[in-house]
Request: fold
Amino acid sequence: MLRWPDLPEDLRPSHAYVPGQTARHPEDWFESIKATVGTSPDRLWDTSAFQTGLAYLGAGYFWECHEVLEAVWLHTADPSAEREMVQALIQLANARLKLQMQRPRAARRLCAMVQGHLAGCGGEAEVLGLRVRDVQEEVAATLKRVDMRDIA
Reply:
């Protein structure tokens, strides 16, 4: 399993946005974080945007993770293992958000997309400082939660 980065208090939103359930954050709330991706593509893993996106994912801020990591994704080469990894993380966050929204079928479909993106990492053992195997374990844990919802 992944060890998520710590989420600095000054970057912690007041709440997790869940569409239809909680208020959306102000439009410019994430701009200073997203602005940190203006670095060379080989250093994206070291940006505040990437690290904060991971921290959001680990702390249950799934919509926020998607919002921040999308800026990282836009700076990856197409095609590349880095692009596939960032897309996998975005879709993993989306799958977990769908679970919060009581949409297990959508979460399962998104987990399949994550697995496809991880397969697209070209057999790399590690991408952007993350072991592909660890992200696969996160997908398996998410699918286990989906299965528990299907049983309930």
